[in-house]
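Q: Make up one entry.
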Amino acid sequence: MQLTKFTRVNLIVQSWLLLARIDLVMKFRTSETLRRIVRGYPVHTSRSSREVTIESLCHAIDIACVFYFKRVLCLQCSAATVILIRKHGFGCELVTGVQILPYEFHAWAETDGVVINDKPYMHEIYQTLERC
């Protein structure tokens, strides 16, 4: 089913506002606070819409990242993705991982063990540190 133009714009605005909220948390709080917010955000089964899919929600986040006023980091993008997806009635986890050489941290979102907002082979590159 095709989303209406109003629904698509609404999802992009929701996504942009989530990015701004998470940006403020990352600027003035700790990453633990952000993880606590994501962990505490429940799946809203009553808000689930038949026309909205996980793919359309991820697309809305991607568009919002393009129009955000500064570079969006993987943790910010993935946390917003998880919250938006849970808000629309789907289960989702924020996963953080580490790569040893070169030493690097990364974050992505997963649904049922499948990476939804990044490359599907994240598990091969990064060791999982935490799931929220």
About this structure: The chain has one domain: 5-131.
